Amino acid sequence: MPSAKPKGPSPFSHWFAIGKPLSPRSRTVLTIFSFIIPLALWSAVSYLPFLWHPDIKLTISAEREGITTIYTRGDHLSREFFPQFEAGVQAENQAVFEARESGEELTPGRRKNLKTLRHISAWGLGNGYLTPNEAKDDKLIYQLWARAAGGDFGTSPKLSPENIKVVKDNWIRIQHIGDKFSSRALPNEALLKLVPQGKRSNPVYLPAPHEVVIAGYYDLFTEQRDPDDPSMWQRALHSMKIVFGGFLLAALVGVPLAVLCGTYDFFSRIFEPFIDFFRYLPAPAFSTLLVAIFLAHDAPKIALVFVGTFFQLVLVVANTTREIDRSLIEASQTLGADQRNILFRVVVPGILPQLYNDLRILLGWAWTWLVIAELIGVKSGLTEFIETQGRWRNFDRVFPVIFLIGFIGFFTDQILSWLRVFLFKWTGETPNAFSRLVASSVSAGPRWFQREVLDQRLDPLAERRNRK
Amino acid sequence: MKFARFASRALSGLALLATLPFTQAEPLKIGYSDWPGWIAWEIGIKKGWFEDAGVEVDFQWMDYVASMDAYVAGQLDAVCMTNGDALAIGGTGKPSVGIVINDYSNGNDMLVAAPGIDSVSELKGKKIGVEEGFVAHLLALKALESAGLGADDVEWVNVPTNETPQVLATGAVDAIAAWQPNSGQALKTVSGSSPVFTSADAPGIIYDLLYVSSESLEGRRDDWQKVANVWYQIVEYINNENNIDEALEILSARVALSPEEYEPFFKGTKILPLRLAKKVWEDNDSLKSVYGSSRIVNDFNVDQGVYDEALNVESYLDPSFTKAVK
């Protein structure tokens, strides 16, 4: 009888060992993958047209006579509707041809023709012949017609054969204008319209990664279109002011109250039952009330974050206070400490490390109120941008800002978690590898502070070492 | 009569104190929102014409209904409203006086129906999304009336006007009523949707005005006159074809559209030159008069139970500022 072959360890066994932690190296690999997998999925759906792509995204557009819905470069049309749009413009060009043949040309006027010429700016922008700031300059737009008529059809988008004919036909009628372009020199007779072109794409709410990166770059690092609008960094600061303002106020009032509740049953009984009830009242329900009390600017927003955080904070911190080691209190009582000493020299230092952790988690909690808070009264901060751009369906501009909120929250938390180890050395914890990585990559400043100030001045041993 | 003299002095002192806030000239706080006739104020703001005219203004950009709420709460001295909504919030919250007629709606207020619905009568038994109790609701009801339907023949869904495009796109409703740029956004978002009824089908039903609180109007008549003067400077500028590109650039930036997307709005919002505005101020019962239009909306509001008794329309309108424009 053939004996069963003893199974050797499979190559995957160490990845799936029950109840055993992975090696630090494997852990790092998996951490990296946890970010790569969603990114890879997003890229696949964006760049592999056969997976989805139900829309046509316009690269060249045109206006139609008598129709007030104007599609511009970057707008999405369903694949079913696009041919109808295309046919509408083709029919208008056809009418121009027929009128010419009959000997009586259509004369829509110079301004209509100027607008027709401007449609080529989409082609110029796509090919990088124009920057967005130059797209309104009619002289440059005229030069684009010269360029296309000269045989440069571009690459993204490339002019379709039909549009090449349009370009050549129009150029014959406008080439006499030359370098001193002025819209008054345009003919009154109808020019042809560029026929819409587009490429397959996903719905507008799922922009491709590179579109998000480009839009994010423009919004974060270049000047905004309206100089009166706040820059993205000013918006971020404004948002942080709301979150930290509301959180700090809640902590300022809440922590002392909570420590009292956790230490004395008297305070616990007189405050906690009501707070326990109140925390179930959803903070956004107070928004109109808060606007009526604090008017429309920052105050009601900070108040909303406060209402959303305060009650939770009191209960959590009070519980933490109750969990202090009883023997510490008993020992100090035996040693004759009075009430005040027990509170400030035993209870407070005893709960500090856990209190720090609680506040870290509650800060994250405060962030979740930000978006609702910024929508009440006069909209402000990052949320106002998300709201307006989302309303105009510029989701490529919305995603970078959503990520920005995520990054700010995530990095603050990681830095706080990394600082904890140094603030509370006696707990004997070491920072976890990931927060160390994050903190060391963004915190050259605090690191210097830690090395030069905290270690030197605050560590009593260091002082002794230095004296030697 | 020592006491009487003392009292009268104290009183006049108090009266002087009471007028102080007015003489100190705080900026006039004016709420404006995303209707093409009101976005036009932006030209005066961006070009610094208010400073030139010697009046301090603080224009606050808000959602339409939020701006009326802020006005009722006393945070604004004036707000841009339709004549119907001015009566509605006057009857329930805070009265006001219209001093400048910006425009009448000539197609930019629309009832936009989902693909497959081509007329108002097909909406029977369907769902319509509107911000209930406000101007778009009025338009939708007018549309139903024109097709021989009543308010009970459809199901109403209360939707903030700026959210209507998304709501129509989800298919949760069969039609929405909204004004530009929201209505245009809905047409663009839902390929194949169409306007089945617009304010061009009922011209004069919606006038758009600047409404000022009576307290502010009483204390600072001269300043409000300057605001009215600047408005007609703006109108003259817009109506000059040479300025159109620059005007479009300023106006479209306010609502994050491109100039070419904005241009068609001019057709659907008839911004009134001074000559025509003076005609609209003439008091008669037709829709060509702001008085006639307001009276019709007044009756409508009573019918709809917005308020119980008809209001005195005349007290909501003051043509003297337009007449005094230099």
TrEMBL record, chain A:
Membrane topology type: Multi-pass membrane protein
Gene3D superfamilies attached to this UniProt entry: MetI-like
Domain of life: Bacteria
GO cellular component labels: plasma membrane
Entry keywords, A to Z: Cell membrane, Membrane, Transmembrane, Transmembrane helix, Transport
A Gene Ontology biological process term: transmembrane transport
Chief localisation class: membrane
Residue intervals of the ABC transmembrane type-1 domain: 236-420
Compartments in which it is found: Cell membrane
Keyword RNA-binding among record annotations: no
Transmembrane segments annotated in the record for this chain: 29-52, 242-265, 277-295, 302-318, 359-378, 398-419
Pfam family, any one: BPD_transp_1
Family per record: Belongs to the binding-protein-dependent transport system permease family.
Protein's name in the database: ABC transporter permease
Organism: Pelagicoccus mobilis
Source taxonomy: Bacteria, Pseudomonadati, Verrucomicrobiota, Opitutia, Puniceicoccales
Automatic annotation (TrEMBL), chain B:
Keywords for this protein: Signal
Family according to the record: Belongs to the bacterial solute-binding protein SsuA/TauA family.
Subcellular location: Periplasm
Keyword Signal in record: yes
Predominant place of localization: periplasm
Gene3D superfamilies listed in its UniProt record: Periplasmic binding protein-like II
Species of provenance: Pelagicoccus mobilis
Pfam families: NMT1_2
Tagged with keyword ATP-binding: no
Signal peptide as annotated in the record: 1-25
Name of the featured protein: ABC transporter substrate-binding protein
Superkingdom: Bacteria
